[in-house]
Amino acid sequence: MEFSSKYLSNAVDEMAQLPGIGKRTALRMVLHLLKQPVEQTKQLTAALDRFREEIIFCEECHNLSDQKICEICSNPKRDNAQLCVVEDIRDVMAIENTGQYQGKYHVLNGIISPIDGIGPQDLTIASLQEKIAKGEIKEVIFALSATMEGDTTIFYIHKQLAAYEVKMSTIARGVPVGDELEYTDEVTLGRSIQKRVPYEDSIR
Amino acid sequence: MEFSSKYLSNAVDEMAQLPGIGKRTALRMVLHLLKQPVEQTKQLTAALDRFREEIIFCEECHNLSDQKICEICSNPKRDNAQLCVVEDIRDVMAIENTGQYQGKYHVLNGIISPIDGIGPQDLTIASLQEKIAKGEIKEVIFALSATMEGDTTIFYIHKQLAAYEVKMSTIARGVPVGDELEYTDEVTLGRSIQKRVPYEDSIR
Q: Quick one: which H or E segment has residue B140?
């Protein structure tokens, strides 16, 4: 794509580096900014700059936070005995949205994935181990993706924590609520038959 | 969506104002920036700020430009007798990419669209008329979208310019090169039969 302006071409090139944004989409977004008041662009760039410079990771759970200790970790109403291990901050948001969990979180900031060159040392596993060593946590709940990488990560952490007296569980896997059996994939359906639960438990 | 950080939530909200970007995509882009060096964010925001503040419209053709007169208008090799009327800067780029046009452009910066509240006075039609009045231009080529709005805009401008001695033409409409007849819509196919061209012309 040839641009009539250096400023335009720079702006498009920079936007096109964002994930999922091609040159065409970048151009559309940049031209949109041109139709809006200058203030909108200033607010956007200021928000991005401030975000990138000011945001920190919570020292306890490694979630994104404005303070050293995030709102969840500093909330005295949350249960200190439960720790939910997740891949990244989006999973914290997803679980928080369910309103079904009152414990705390531990954000791994990734998942073991040899193909992407991500090993255990790239995750916050050491800090997780330290936390468990203190003995306050009674249960670790693995809420990782139901993928090979997720399973590998759970397996690895499970081994690391085996020496401690802590209950470890994973979130339930099975047919999603509202889904029709006919369209559920074989592996999920097969596993959900194997791991069937007593009816009394299922309606509680 | 609930965010653990004010900075994050601001950045996501601002990004989500861009066209075609929802909150989820905005979050993905913002978290991507967090994984990159701070410099990348700075370059992005600087490029956007500079673009929004420095870019100007060419005084002649209303294309985006770094100088008062854009590169195409100031190019002595371009044909001053031909003027191609387009909706916006993207169309200039598209036509330039074909390498088939050596004349100059006139960017309307929009298209007449009552439903979006865009009337003739919002476009650069007055400036187009002034240009034609000078008498140097021999042909005006309408290269607008093949839509109701495009047709309306051509009709309106055609009436405005009727008093001047200038040839007016529109780009050819028909079955796209490479397309199969079977999948061409009825209207296009119907028109392309009505407006058939002598075979000798079609292979020139």
A: strand B139-143
Instruction: Report the alpha-carbon distance of residue A105 to residue A82 in Å, rounded.
Output: 8
Residues of B in contact with A99 (CB under 8 A): none
Chain A neighbors of B123, CB-CB under 8 A: none
According to the model, what pLDDT value does residue B1 have?
67
**Residue indicated by tokens 């074989």:** A186
How far is residue B59's CA from residue B41's CA, in Å, rounded to a whole number? 33
State how far Cα B84 lies from the chain centre.
11
CB nearest B45 (choices: A17, A20, A45): A45
From chain B, pick out residues whose CB is under 8 angstroms from the CB of A5.
55, 64-66, 70
pLDDT in tens, B128-187: 999 999 989 999 999 998 889 999 999 999 999 999 999 999 988 888 888 888 888 888
The full set of domains in chain B, from first to last, is 6-54 (1.10.8.420), 76-202 (3.40.1360.10)
Q: What are phi and psi of B116, to 5 degrees?
A: -100, 5
pTM for this model (two decimals) = 0.77
Q: Which two tokens stand for residue B1?
A: 């969506």
Nearest CB to B27 within list A50, A65, A90? A90
Chain A environment of B57 (Cβ under 8 Å)? none
Residues of chain A short of pLDDT 70, as ranges, are: 1, 204
CA-CA distance, B133 to B141, in Å (whole number)? 16
Q: For residue A104, give how far its alpha carbon lies from the nearest alpha carbon of chain B (Å).
A: 13
Q: What is the pLDDT of chain B when averaged over all its residues?
A: 91
How many residues are there in chain A? Answer: 204
Of A4, A44, A92, the CB nearest to B48: A44
Q: Given this model, what pLDDT does residue B127 score?
A: 94
Strand-strand pairing, A56-57 and A64-65: antiparallel
Q: Contact B174/B195 with Cβ under 8 angstroms?
A: yes
Half-sphere exposure of A126 (CA within 13 A, CB side): 4
CB pair distance less than 8 Å for B55 and A66: no
